[in-house]
Amino acid sequence: MADSQLHGACSCGRNIYVVDVPRASTQRAQVLFDNSSQTRRQFASPFTAWLRVPFSWYRSTTFAFFPDETHRSIRRTFVSPFESNTRRQFCGYCGTQLAQWEDVANPADEYINLTLGSLLDEDLDLLEGMGLLPSSDNEEEVEQTTQTVRSPPSQVVAPRGAPWFESMVRDSRLGKFKRSRGGHTSRDGSVKVAWEVVEWTGEDDNESSNGGKRKFNEAEEGASDVHMRG
Q: Can you tell me the distance from the alpha carbon of 54 to that of 109, in angstroms, rounded to the nearest whole number?
């Protein structure tokens, strides 16, 4: 049994996956940054961050939200005519890019690249403990503000960024990040919204749910077919 597990999903939750990471083999996992022209066009992004692991560590399943949804319609695979040995996998409904791999002659040599952004936030933190991402221990303390409300808020929006990425590019040639935080409380005090804006600049200026857990438990039990969500 694996000593560590990483979990990921698409944006809508129809696709989920689990990566079993043996403690003695963590060095076989890598975080890669791909800025090839083909990947830039595919993701419409300057570069893409991958988690590269042996294919044998990876397992996944799909969940249908409606009766007419099938495993094939949920998990789509694209093969470019210019890269016939490369498979790219994405969600057929929300469009989240999930994985990429190449067909090889020896299955023992096969690796899969998983989009780093599809991992759960808490598992991104686990990658730091595995030494695959820089630690965010030195991340600046979150500014705290206090506001008077007449009643406990019924809804709170608390966005979370990617401190590991910010720590990587801080003081580098990629530039710096400027962060602004604030909040707003409704007049009756029933709703409180917290916001955070992160601005990237190239100049030298100063600066998850119970339902999801249930689905991950089913995936960890080895489910491989499409499931209807009750």
A: 8
3-state secondary structure of 117: helix
pLDDT digits (tens, 9 = 90+) for 173-229: 555 556 677 787 878 878 788 777 766 665 554 544 455 666 666 666 655 555 555
Helices (H), the chain: 37-43, 71-74, 121-129, 163-169, 210-220
DSSP for 168-194, written as a single string? HHTTBTTBEEEEEEEEEE-TTSSEEEE
Domain 4-133 fold is 2.170.150
Query: Per residue in 58-78, pLDDT tens?
Result: 999 999 999 999 999 999 999
Structural contact between residues 76 and 93, judged by C-beta atoms closer than 8 angstroms: no
Domain residue limits, the chain: 4-133, 134-207
Residues 6+ apart with CB under 8 A from 129: none
User: pTM for the full model?
Assistant: 0.60
Task: Say if residues 87 and 101 touch (Cβ distance below 8 Å).
Answer: yes
What is d(CA 183, CA 204) in angstroms, rounded to the nearest whole number?
28
Sign of dihedral through CA atoms 31, 33, 39, 45? positive
3-state secondary structure (DSSP) of residue 61: strand
